[in-house]
Amino acid sequence: MKILISPPIRFGNQFSGAMRRTLEVYSRINEEAYLCIDDGTFHFLDDNIKPLLYSFRIVKSNSTNRLKYLIGFIRCLNAAKKVDFILSYSEYSLSIIYSYLLSLLSGKPLIIFVHHVTEELRGESIYYNLLKSAFNRSLGIISLDSEEVVNEVKNLFPHKKIVTSTNGVNAKDYYTLDEKMCDCIFIGNYSERKGVKYLNEICERLNYKLCIIGNGWNEKNLPKNAVYYGFVSEKVKRDILARSKIFVFPSLYEGFGLVVLEALASYLPVVTWDLPWSRRFNEGVVKIKFDDVEEFVKTIKELLSNEEKRKMLGIRGRMFAEKMSWENAANMEKKAVMEILNSRNF
Fold first, then answer.
1. pLDDT above 70 for 258
2. Does residue 214 sit in the same domain as residue 92?
């Protein structure tokens, strides 16, 4: 089986969770995979991510330079003609449209991966009609195994073949240190979906140091007592996690919540809302009734004052994370792909 993965993956601060998952899973799937990458951002490639690329046939493209865009697209198109199907790894408009055009021009089947249902998929995009055409052309959809996401995808595309896959973590790469520098840590870009409104409300009631990793934050929107690190390398992220006491994550909606899994692998207790997306995490996580900011604050205070309870939750969370390997995710992904390919009507 030969696969082309598109659109071009970007590195540096444009490297997303969807890109990270794609590399982790498809580097382990044991099939011949062509990978379109954005050559203009390649020099920002994280040293911890670099080994994953060795499993792919690299296709140098460009999605950030207008002059080089067409040349890069043609390279990906030439690679598309050699494969059995094209995988679109992201559900955002321009990402799917890029893969859709490759599929149309090469005549090769398209499979679309949906991490979470974006507003674009709900119709809030000038490219919505093209998106619908892409999904209609696709052989099927792979969705993360969140009941909330799967049900919404089924409602949006009731006539498509929909199968599920999952995420994972290399738990052995994460650790904890006795010396702490953050009372609480939050990892996520500045967006309403990540619960930044609630994060601000929570921090207003606390006098503890909060460390933030992600894009889009600035001096005007930073919560009280927050230290902003911006976008950091995998090595730095793991070190900051190891030097933190609690992972605070008032997110409203996640396809999976990979950063929660990384926090659990770092022996961190997690405090989050009790929402459909968080229900898969049943160890090491304290779930608060949604919108009860006072209870959220109370829980953080109790954990920060009780080291023994933090350690107990941290150990249980680590044990949970160790069961969620990328190898298992890759096996699940391969079965999902084969189920879609085998469902074709000839």
1. yes
2. no
Q: Full-prediction pTM beyond 0.90?
A: yes
Inter-residue contact 299 to 288 (CB < 8 Å): yes
Tell me the CATH number at 136. Answer: 3.40.50.2000
What would the two tokens of residue 244 be? 């933190």
Tell me the average pLDDT across 5-12: 95
Query: Are 103 and 151 members of one domain?
Result: yes
Q: Is the pLDDT of residue 346 over 80?
A: no
Residues forming a β-bridge with 187: 213
* Amino acid type, 235: K
Contact call for residues 144 and 167 (beta carbons, < 8 A): yes
Q: How far apart are CA 293 and CA 296, in angstroms?
A: 5
Within its chain, how far is the Cα of 230 from the centroid? 17
Helix-helix angle 66-80:93-106, to 10 degrees: 50
> Over the stretch 9-65, which tens digit does the pLDDT of each residue have?
999 998 999 999 999 999 999 999 999 999 999 999 999 999 999 999 999 998 878
107: left (phi over 0), alpha (psi -120 to 50) or beta: left
Domain extent at residue 230: 171-322
Which DSSP helix (H) or strand (E) runs through 96? helix 93-106
Burial class, 345, CB count within 10 angstroms (exposed 0-12 / middle 13-18 / buried 19+): exposed
Mean pLDDT of 87-113: 95
Same domain, residue pair 139 and 258? no
